[in-house]
Each structure stands twice: as structure tokens, then as C-alpha cells.
Automatic annotation (TrEMBL):
Protein name listed in UniProt: tRNA nucleotidyltransferase
One Pfam family recorded for the sequence: HD
One record GO biological process: tRNA processing
Keyword Magnesium: yes
Residue stretches making up the Poly A polymerase head domain: 30-155
Keywords: ATP-binding, Magnesium, Metal-binding, Nucleotide-binding, Nucleotidyltransferase, RNA repair, RNA-binding, Transferase, tRNA processing
Domain HD: residue ranges: 260-377
Recorded family membership: Belongs to the tRNA nucleotidyltransferase/poly(A) polymerase family.
Length: 482
């Protein structure tokens, strides 16, 4: 990209404001890092890093004053400041050089030159800098040939990769994340350095690791990242349960599929349909219990009975260990893991209204996400088999819509509650109340009665009579007409 073209991309008012200040005060200042990388890749970026030879905090305060921005977030310990202006977040930092203690990723920071600052960057493609001084506005400073690496789609470090990754082991995850997001190749030397330094990842907090892993999962083709994590040995350290899915076993001429690669194929097939991070986690974990449930049965072959039930129970432990949220997001993943077999079974059989009602009842508002997961789970190489399954899934989808419109069982609430049963039969709290409620629910789901109060009321009276109960009080709700 020519210098004149670069200038066109620096027309945002913040650049002219900073340029005016640094020129007036005879400072050196540069826009650096991801914004510059993405500019050359023709990708939009809303985060801007400004480096100045001097105080980043002072430059931020002066820029804020010129721009009419009242709030500047200052982080004195790091010598950085951040402000929001129009549609951008701009972070300011003084140029610095860093050294590291082997047992910590927190660096010892000193003032430095621009080249010192570029050396401390993680990768050559993130060390590109554009001058903001008016005398050479838009000039590219690229001491490590980052532009060549961008053009050749290569990830490599400005310094020796062994040193880069030993100093800050999170950069190993970042290398794999950028390779995945950009569909770049990690250089041979850099990849080998990740293998050598993999154990250093243990000094990184789980929160920082999961942040990078989630970015890999949210990429267009997450399997690239997971294969690199596995190849370098990092995956076994950060997500050993997933590595256990690897491998095929053969007995009596019968093999099962490699569930590691199957799972990655499911994840890749899901990505065009959904950018829901937690649905993608559901794809990652849907078969997580298969190593625990694998059995070879003569006359049948390989079985993985109850892997969905056991997988559901494994989810909280995995989430807790990996510092993922232990809230409704985790419960959503549990639900998807538990139910992922249900639509597949329906797609193999004659679809009954009763089975559809039960699926709607159990999945609730998440039934559409469940169907996306199940459709992605069809990874057969037999095109005819895949087409048959997907056609049957369309039938399941139509039936889901028809039954929901007719019976309203998604997020089903029983038309008769426990208090009404107590009032009608003059009961104290006891198991029989739950038995009647369960009988009403089963009758609705089986299509014996419609999902309406009047029908449920009559069914309740009939069920009560079978149990030897006599109603002593009329319901205060509307009763059926004779």
C-alpha cells in the first residue's frame, strides 16, 4: 500500500489532533499494532494504539483536551491512558523496553525507543508503525519486515521466538489465535518454539487463556486453532478432556470414528449458522463423555451409551476448571449436550406429535439452537446419507412449528398448579400432589388432553378419584360448561 493510500486511512479526526500536538511539541508518535496490521489487510478496526517517545499519559490528556473529551482513563502502574472519541477507543503508551523474570509474565519496564517498543511486540505483523508527525505523516516504520510476513501470510516473532514465548507465554496462544483468525501459517521456527515452551503456559491465569481460546472458537474455522494447539502440545495442558477424544480403535474389523476430528468438523459446520459462543462450546462438548462410555459389544460393535447424560454432568467441572461462567450460559451448554441426540433419533424414525411435544418441553426456547447443533453433527462422508438426515431434519422442524402452534408446549407451564390441587382436595403438602401434576403433564405431552385448564381440571378430578380423593372445594378458576 503506497504512502498516499495509507494517509487516506488516517483521516479520522483523532489522527490529525495527535499529529498537531506532536508536531507542535516536536515529539515522535506513531499509530502501531493491530490497527496498522488490519489497515493493510483491509479489515475494519475500532481499537487504536498510539505510542509516543515520552509520556503516553500526558499525550492522552492533551489529545483529550483538543478533542473535547472530558474523561481519560489513566493506568499509572502501566504508564498507559485510554480515551473514547467518536467511534474509536484510543490507548496511549510511552515507548518502552521490557525484561522478564522467568517466574512471572509481568515485565520490568523502562523507557525506550520506537525500535525497543517494536521489539517487545508479539509478532512482526503487529510491530508495524505509522508516523503521526506532520513531517513524515503516514510513513511506515517496519524494521522486522512485517509487511512481507503479511503478504506471505506468516506469523513470526520480531525477536528469537524462544525468548518471546518464554518471556510472555500467552503469546503462544495468541500466535495460534492469529493463525486461526487470519488463516495464516505459523513459521517453522516459531511453531517449534511453542512446542519447546509449552509448559510455560502454566504461569498464565486461566482467565487469560480462556479469553484467547474463546477467540479461536469464535473464528470462521476454529479447527485450525485446535489442531495447532494439539500439534504443539498446548491443548493437553489447557483442555486435556478434549484431547482424550483422539484416536480410533478397531476390534474384530470394526472401527469407531475419531471423535476428536469429528467434533472439530461439527464445530466448523456450525460456524456459518451461528456465532453464539455457547452453542459453539456445546458443539465442542457434545461428545466429551465418549471416552468414558466407549464399549465394544459382540454382534453390535462400538457403543457410547448415555454419553449425553454423562457429558451433561461433566460440563460444570470443565467450566469451573477453565474459569468459564457458572451461570445460565453453562446451563445452556449442559442442556445442549444432554439433548443433542434427541432430534437425530427423531430424524431416523416416524416423527410423532408426542415425541415433538416432549422435545419442545425439554428444549424450550433453545430448540432452534439445538436443531442447528444437530444438523452440524451430521458429518458422514456418504452424501446420500447426509442428504437423507438433513431432509428429515426439515421434517422435524416443520413438525416442531406445527405442534408448537397447536399445543403451546415450548416453555410449558402446567395449567393446574400445586396450590389448586391442595385446595380442591383439601390436602396438606405431600407426594400425591406431585404425582397428579406429573400425570397432567404426561397427559398433555402424550396428546391425551389439550394444554388447557378446563381439560386439565377434568383430568385432575379423574386422577384424584383413581387415588381415592374427593373434591371438597370448587376451583376459583373458570370451570367447563356442561
Amino acid at each position: 500500500m503506497k504512502k498516499s493510500k495509507v494517509k487516506e486511512h488516517l483521516k479520522h479526526p483523532i489522527f490529525s489532533i495527535i499529529s498537531k500536538i506532536v508536531t507542535r511539541e516536536n515529539l515522535e508518535s506513531y499509530v502501531i499494532g493491530g490497527f496498522v496490521r488490519d489497515l493493510f489487510l483491509h479489515r475494519e478496526s475500532k481499537d487504536i494504539d498510539i505510542v509516543v517517545i515520552g509520556s503516553g499519559i500526558e499525550l492522552a490528556q492533551k489529545a483529550a483536551k483538543e478533542a473535547g473529551v472530558s474523561k481519560v482513563s489513566i493506568f499509572k502502574n502501566y504508564g498507559t491512558a485510554m480515551l473514547k472519541y467518536k467511534d474509536l477507543e484510543i490507548e496511549f503508551v510511552g515507548a518502552r523496553k521490557e525484561s522478564y523474570n522467568r517466574d512471572s509474565r509481568n515485565p520490568i519496564v523502562e523507557d525506550g525507543t520506537l525500535e525497543d517498543d517494536q521489539k517487545r511486540r508479539d509478532f512482526t505483523i503487529n510491530a508495524l508503525a505509522l508516523s503521526l508527525h506532520q513531517d513524515n505523516f503516514g510513513e511506515l516504520l517496519d524494521p522486522f519486515n512485517g509487511i512481507n510476513d503479511l503478504n506471505n501470510k506468516i506469523i513470526k516473532t520480531p525477536m528469537e521466538p524462544i525468548i518471546t514465548f518464554s518471556d510472555d507465554p500467552l503469546r503462544m496462544m495468541r500466535a495460534i489465535r492469529f493463525a486461526t483468525q487470519l488463516n495464516f501459517t505459523i513459521s517453522k521456527e516459531t511453531l517449534e518454539a511453542i512446542r519447546t515452551n509449552k509448559d510455560r503456559i502454566n504461569i498464565i491465569t486461566k482467565e487469560r487463556i480462556i479469553e484467547e481460546l474463546n477467540k479461536i472458537i469464535l473464528s470462521d474455522k476454529p479447527s485450525i486453532g485446535f489442531k495447532l494447539l494439539d500439534e504443539t502440545g498446548l491443548l493437553k495442558l489447557i483442555f486435556p478432556e478434549f484431547v482424550r477424544l483422539k484416536g480410533r480403535e478397531t476390534r474384530k474389523g470394526i472401527s469407531h470414528k475419531d471423535n476428536f476430528y469429528h467434533t472439530l468438523e461439527v464445530l466448523d459446520q456450525l460456524t456459518p449458522k451461528s456465532n453464539n459462543l455457547w452453542l459453539r462450546w456445546s458443539a465442542l462438548l457434545h461428545d466429551i463423555a465418549k471416552p468414558n462410555t466407549k464399549r465394544f459389544v459382540d454382534g453390535i460393535g462400538w457403543t457410547f451409551h448415555a454419553h449425553n447424560f454423562i457429558g451433561e454432568k461433566m460440563v460444570p467441572g470443565i467450566f469451573k476448571k477453565m474459569k468459564l461462567p457458572l451461570n445460565e450460559k453453562m446451563k445452556f451448554v449442559q442442556k445442549m449436550v444432554l439433548l443433542h441426540m434427541r432430534p437425530i433419533v427423531l430424524a431416523q424414525e416416524v416423527v410423532t406429535d408426542s415425541a415433538i411435544r416432549r422435545l419442545l418441553f425439554d428444549a424450550g426456547d433453545d430448540v432452534d439452537e439445538l436443531m442447528k447443533l444437530c444438523e452440524a453433527d451430521i458429518t458422514s462422508k456418504n452424501e446420500e446419507k447426509v442428504k437423507k438426515f438433513l431432509d428429515n431434519f426439515q421434517l422435524v422442524r416443520r413438525k416442531l412449528k406445527e405442534v408448537e402452534e397447536k399445543d403451546s408446549v415450548r416453555n410449558f407451564q402446567p395449567p393446574i398448579d400445586g396450590q389448586e390441587i391442595i385446595d380442591i382436595f383439601n390436602l396438606s403438602p405431600c407426594r400425591i400432589i406431585g404425582d397428579i401434576k406429573m400425570a397432567i403433564k404426561e397427559a398433555i405431552l402424550d396428546g391425551v388432553i389439550p394444554n388447557e385448564h378446563d381439560a386439565a381440571y377434568q383430568f385432575m378430578l379423574k386422577k384424584g378419584k383413581e387415588l381415592g380423593l374427593e373434591p371438597i372445594k370448587k376451583s376459583n378458576k373458570k370451570e367447563p360448561l356442561d
